[in-house]
Write a structure and sequence with these properties.
about 35% strand, about 100 residues, about 25% helix, alpha+beta, 3 helices, single chain
Length: about 100
């Protein structure tokens, strides 16, 4: 199976957009990373809309003080060179924030 097909299947296994809204125990199931020089940008995704390619998740652009929840285009992440972290284990938002 090709990498893109595998990625698509993994993303389609995420809950649909708004499905976990308000659920603080919902886990972020996929993590994208983008190393840039001496920094690493991170996106944790917990919802995905396969028709638009939009995902909902948490973003840390190398500054925990400026991290935020929001929507992101998966296509945009891929175009920038981000890739799925193969070692990532699903975490809640509280667990992610504790690690930062």
């Amino acid at each position: 199976m090709g990498i893109m097909k595998q990625l698509y299947i993994e993303l389609c296994n995420l809950p649909k957009l708004y499905a976990t809204d308000g659920d603080e125990t919902a886990k972020f199931l996929v993590k994208f990373i983008l190393p840039v020089d001496d920094r690493t940008f991170e996106w944790w995704l917990k919802e995905f809309d396969e028709t638009t390619g939009r995902a909902f998740g948490y973003t840390n652009l190398n500054d925990p003080q400026m991290s935020e929840l929001g929507y992101i285009s998966v296509q945009e992440l891929l175009e920038k060179g981000a890739f799925i972290d193969p070692l990532y284990k699903p975490l809640t938002l509280a667990e992610i924030e504790k690690e930062l």
